[in-house]
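Box 3.1 A note on notation
Throughout this textbook, protein chains are presented in two layers. The first layer is the amino acid sequence; the second is a token string describing backbone geometry. Keep the layers aligned when reading.
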Amino acid sequence: MNLEIAGKWALVCGASKGLGFGCAKALVDNGVNVVINARRAEVLQAAASELTVLADAAAKRDGFGAATVIAVACDITTVEGREAVFTAAGGPGKDFDIVVTNAGGPPPGDFREWERDAWIKAIDANMLTPIELIKATIDGMAARGFGRIVNITSSAVKAPIDILGLSNGARSGLTGFVAGVARSSIAAKGVTINNILPGKFATDRLEGTMKAAASKSGKDMDAIREAQQAVVPARRFGHPDEFGALCAFLCSQQAGYITGQNMLIDGGMYSGTF
């Protein structure tokens, strides 16, 4: 399917690896210019090099111009980091057509051990930063008549995970905010906002939660991995490329009638009817 977004500009946060990289790959493969962001410059540059190769291959395959890939290593949760992204040489400024918000989840643990600073850090990264990015770009999208905002949240928004209380709280706050804004006047101006709720994907984040579970239970990692795969009806972990494909579709012209939604992608693990 031609998603009809070649030549658009996207900002993809947390794009050096994992789900963010999967989203950037899918967009570049569809001819979208990307500004990718992460904190670690070396890892981010390696991701940018891989994306550039993919962009050239996609251009030869599909006959459109090769997508531009710009890497900006910074902390997107800070004012300075966001300014660096918006002023990147060769980039679109704040005139992004697509914004994919993504931040590493806060650490697992026992809520009794979390002080105020831990909560503020989680809310800043997983709620307030996406809101700031939306605020900076949404009016320009509306003025141009096209915009796609996709927030990477978590399946824990629908089915909270006990050791991920910081994530449960912060991401649920973002979800509530998006539910209102997505249905405001911007909906009639070609701008959509949706959330993707990943389940168990083969990422460093999952590896970290499994290590925490192993430490808590005293079991070894292989046993934890087998047990976690066993509770997924698909009997496997998801791949970031699968996640990226869903993200790219939500950014497409064809997805213009989908907004304010929470899209679960979890191998069937959530068992609720609604």
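The chain has eight helices and seven strands. The longest helix spans residues 116-144.
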